[in-house]
Design brief:
Number of helices: 9
Helix content: 25-40%
Structural class: alpha/beta
Shape: globular
Largest sheet: 4 strands, parallel
Order of helices and strands: HEHEHEHEHHHEEEEHH
Number of strands: 8
Distance between the termini: 28 Å
CATH architecture of one domain: 3-Layer(aba) Sandwich
Strand order of the largest sheet: 2-1-3-4
Length: 272
């Protein structure tokens, strides 16, 4: 029988048996938030699916996903579920501690919501200080290289990028096409704030310089598409993105498996 790769599918006896191999655990994180009028709000399902695909290929184990993230600026749109910063950090600490307390130390955070990143950094630093264990994080939508964007969209790569556009729309087309609403696909409904062009929910620009200010998603867009053109998204681009993420994660899992999370100076012997 093939080894299971998702923790949610294992009995506790099956998981205990896997502990002898000192497994690498993927801790997937996501969000429940608007993704434009055409895409499901539960984008965490993409992260969960990709984490399980990567776990299967790499021999790691994917933990159940934490589906809610830090996304205070999406509160003005109904249907989202946002955690307070303190809550998010406490839940992430509890997730990691559930494994660390059993001596399972090769953990990798697999994050599918970019706004979680600052809180992840704060939390893993506190964990390292308390336990001595380093926990790396892969922010999956941020690590896609420029070459992949070019392969996916050619000279339209920059136009495709953004919240409401790609990578998520193409990945939805590849993994969950039945959940999309193609009839609702539209271009960005970007708005101005205080007479200035907006630069996402982080602020505006004045005379070409960024000005930080606390904006909500409804302050900067009429239709939930902050930037990026979802009309450019394709199933083929989605497959390229997913395949790259699975391959990259597989390589990183192999590297991290050879590391001691407590010994930063150790040079792992990783098969090439």
């Amino acid at each position: 029988m093939n080894a299971k790769h998702a923790l949610k599918d294992m009995t506790w006896v099956e998981f205990r048996e896997r502990l002898e191999e000192r497994p690498v655990m993927l801790l997937p994180l996501g969000s429940q938030e608007e993704q434009g009028p055409h895409a499901p709000m539960g984008d965490y399902m993409l992260t969960q699916r990709i984490s399980e695909m990567a776990a299967e290929k790499s021999g790691a184990i994917a933990a159940p996903i934490m589906p809610f993230g830090y996304a205070d600026f999406f509160k003005t749109v109904p249907g989202g579920i946002q955690l307070r910063a303190k809550t998010f950090s406490m839940v992430l600490d509890d997730m990691a501690s559930a494994f660390l307390e059993h001596g399972i130390e090769r953990l990798i955070i697999f994050n599918g919501h970019s706004s979680n990143a600052p809180l992840i950094d704060q939390t893993v630093r506190l964990i390292k200080k308390r336990t001595g264990v380093t926990i790396p994080a892969l922010h999956i939508w941020r690590i896609l290289p420029a070459s992949l964007w070019k392969d996916a969209h050619g000279d339209k790569a920059n136009a495709a990028k953004g919240h409401g556009g790609d990578p998520l729309t193409s990945v939805y087309k590849y993994l969950y096409p039945e959940l999309l609403r193609p009839d609702l696909i539209s271009k960005s409904g970007a708005k101005r704030a205080f007479g200035m062009a907006t630069d996402g929910v982080g602020g505006s620009t004045f005379q070409g310089a960024p000005v930080a200010m606390p904006l909500d998603v409804t302050d900067v867009t009429d239709n939930g598409i902050i930037s990026g053109d979802p009309t450019i998204a394709t199933t083929e681009a989605g497959k390229l993105i997913v395949d790259w993420l699975v391959d990259f994660t597989t390589q990183f899992v192999a590297h991290w498996r050879a590391c001691d999370p407590r010994k930063i100076d150790h040079q792992p012997d990783v098969p090439k």
